[in-house]
Design a protein that fits this description.
- The protein is α/β, with parallel strands linked by helices and 432 residues long.
- The chain is built from 17 helices and 14 strands.
- It folds into two domains: 204 residues, Rossmann fold; 147 residues, 3-Layer(aba) Sandwich (Rossmann fold).
- The strands form three sheets. Strands 1-11-10-9-12-13 form a six-stranded parallel beta sheet, with helices on both faces. A five-stranded parallel beta sheet has the order 6-5-4-7-8, sandwiched between helices.
- Helix 4 packs across helix 7.
- The longest helix has 19 residues.
């Protein structure tokens, strides 16, 4: 843990390490490129090779898909209480998503001209569901659930198998509830490659969404162009703005909720106007850490990724938050709503002490697939719009084209594109 105080002469320099954080170590791209190339060239054979190498499981191509029988068996293994939680979260995500379904529109801004937009759902998308250090059941809901609400016909999920080849029952049950139409027990980079390029047994998709480790993130970046992707998202992070009235136990618990994700590269940052609160939160972090089951990754984050920062006032806090652009921003202090309005960039903002970050991870409604590593300044979190194609509509009558012909010809002249001009003028060639 590192404490930084606003009256320190090196304050700004110390903050630089927060602002300049990579989504993943760049050196891993070479190994990722090789895996992608192998799958693109060798298809199913490469998938079998990498399933053995990385997930320690022997898979032949006929074993890649999870069949209906296995899904039904998984459903029986999931408790009623888990099923209820999954259905409740899915309903909340579905409700939120449906508020944002893009609607077609048209208008006639000038006589004889109609312009507008039309939206159609993508036909085949891929969702990546992490299953290594933790079976992320909620990610199924926060990816496939949106695609289902959008009306995507084919929702293809890949997720790493256990050494015995099985997939976690709760993940399979959530996939069934969220409308997934195909499930493949393929993980990591080779799973992303299968979605992006397709193989003899797996048809390629149009877009890949969902979080993953550094290797998955690098793979998504490298296949961009072959398919669309949602964003380049790195290790999870949380920033909390607090004052002297905030509960240090709440703050520490929320910071640890992100530290336990497992990569060890997560970050948890506290900004507070109260220097004493930094000390109290530090003590709480150590106390609560001892009670957790996933202490090893937490220890690494506590050593390298926790920053307790004393700020002069809330204006400074909002400025730091805007520049950091955290994946998750909690504002627990007084007048939290007013402070939130000052923040210019964040993946999601959690307002008030009764809105802990995990409520967004699991069941609030907005997708938990959010930009990290400062990319919130130019990317937004996953929403239902990301599963639609947008098409511009243009409809000109003859009189309208004639009215704007001079403009078309002038642009063609400026750009040296004679054929462009002729395309318009030829329609009036025989007119006097």
């Amino acid at each position: 843990m590192e404490k930084i105080y606003y009256n320190d002469k090196a304050f700004d320099k110390k903050l630089d390490k927060l602002y300049h954080r990579p989504s993943y170590p760049p050196e891993i791209e070479e190994s990722v490129k090789q895996i992608l190339a192998d799958v693109r060239r060798d298809g199913d054979a490469a998938l079998s090779t990498y399933a053995k190498k990385f997930d320690k499981v022997d898979l032949t191509p006929d074993m890649f898909p999870v069949d209906e029988k296995e899904i039904k068996k998984a459903s029986r293994a999931v408790s009623n209480s888990c099923k209820k939680a999954i259905k409740e979260a899915l309903a909340n995500v579905d409700f939120f998503s449906r508020q944002r379904i893009p609607q077609p529109w048209s208008s006639s801004p000038r006589p004889g001209v109609i312009v507008g937009e039309r939206f159609e759902p993508m036909e085949r998308i891929g969702v990546y569901i992490p299953g290594g250090t933790a079976p992320l059941v909620s990610t199924v809901i926060h990816t496939a659930g949106l695609a289902k609400a959008a009306g995507v016909k084919e929702i293809v999920a890949v997720t790493p198998p256990a050494p015995d080849g099985t997939v976690h029952p709760a993940i399979l049950y959530a996939m069934h509830q969220a409308g997934v139409t195909e499930v493949y027990r393929l993980g990591g980079v080779y799973g992303i490659a299968a979605l992006a390029y397709g193989t003899e047994s797996i048809k390629k998709v149009e877009k890949i969404v969902g979080p993953g480790n550094a290797y998955v993130t690098a793979a998504k970046k490298l296949v961009y162009g072959e398919v669309a992707i949602d964003m380049i998202a790195g290790p999870s992070e949380i920033m909390i703005i607090a004052d002297e009235k905030c509960n240090p136990a709440f703050i520490a618990a929320d910071m640890l909720s992100q530290a336990e994700h497992g990569s060890g590269f997560e970050q948890a940052v506290l900004l507070s106007t109260d220097a004493d609160l930094l000390d109290m939160v530090e003590q709480e972090l150590l106390k609560q850490k001892a009670e957790l089951s996933r202490r090893e990754p937490v220890d690494k984050v506590l050593a390298d990724g926790v920053f307790l920062i004393h700020v002069e006032d809330m204006t400074q806090a909002a400025g730091i938050a805007s520049r950091y652009a955290p994946e998750h921003l909690e504002i627990q202090c007084r007048k939290a709503g007013n402070i939130a309005k000052q923040v210019k960039a964040a993946g999601a903002i959690f307002i008030g002490q009764w809105t802990p970050e995990p409520i967004g991870d699991f069941c609030a409604g907005p997708s938990h697939v959010l930009p990290t590593a400062g990319s919130g300044k130019y990317f937004s979190g996953l929403t239902i719009e990301g599963f639609f194609r947008r098409m511009s509509i243009l409809n000109y009558q003859k009189s309208a084209l004639k009215q704007e012909l001079k403009t078309v010809l002038k642009f063609a002249e400026m750009e040296g594109l004679d054929a462009h001009g002729k395309s318009a003028s030829i329609r009036f060639k025989n007119e006097k």
